[in-house]
User: Fold fructokinase from Raphanus sativus.
Amino acid sequence: MSTSNGEKSLIVSLGEMLIDFVPTVSGVSLAEAPGFIKAPGGAPANVAIAVSRLGGRAAFVGKLGDDEFGHMLAGILKQNGVSAEGINFDTGARTALAFVTLRSDGEREFMFYRNPSADMLLCPDELNLDLIKSAKVFHYGSISLIVEPCRSAHLKAMEVAKEAGALLSYDPNLRLPLWPSKEEAKKQILSIWDKAEVIKVSDEELMFLTGSDNVDDETALSLWYDNLKLLLVTLGEKGCNYYTKSFRGSVDPFRVNTVDTTGAGDSFVGALLNNIVDDRSILEYEARLREVLRFANACGAITTTKKGAIPALPTVSEVQTLLNGN
Assistant:
């Protein structure tokens, strides 16, 4: 597992970055919460920071409000070693906010303030195309597909990255309250399905996209298509399942004391991408892929042991400690 920034290829992540307001106590509704702590978040930004914290090279592409929160978020990216060359600031719209309830089991419920928020207003002509062309891996979600002009910017960035030879990585990161309807969410998430070579979905997203009550191999493989190199289904505290053209299997989880699941999937994705960015052949060798997925599972597990996503994203030494203890 290489950890030096000097020789790593670039992973570029596109999408939303926002501020999560997390209750000071767990297990209460938003209305009952006595107070909130602000926590930077947004899945694509979390992935970029996860990569950087593991010693990789990452850049974030997106739009923030030209406000205190927007500049704070850009500062957090830079403090964490993520390139902010792909960030634009919008003078007319605010940085997105989300109020997040932490249920007593560490799972979350969301209430969003985005009407519209700056991230939704990213235009195709604002994209830093040189940065996107220099990516070896280009990662994105589906929230940037919900409205124009951001949707067009997302599609253009994907096309430019693909033409430049990047591996495309997709984590839909379903947030139903942000979509006009369930039907629209499913339609748009699947509209770019056949472009990515690495796709990660959670067990809940798998059931949503397929309409099935199962998370078995048959259900997962109904989402398979020819261009795909790796399909991952994360199962929370049960580990993950993986599918390639040649093999499939599952990787066991790590048992930890879960406090907050925020960012666990992003940590998992960042770890995976950081390990394959300079050696895509890992996707063709099951033993090596399993080793990388075990590392990614460890990253996800560690992330659930602290509140908030970014503060909880692990370093290589923290992951090695968990791996060596199991």
The chain has one domain: 43-92+117-325. The CA atoms of residues 100 and 110 lie 5 Å apart. DSSP finds ten helices and 13 strands in the chain. Confidence is low (pLDDT under 50) at residues 1-5.
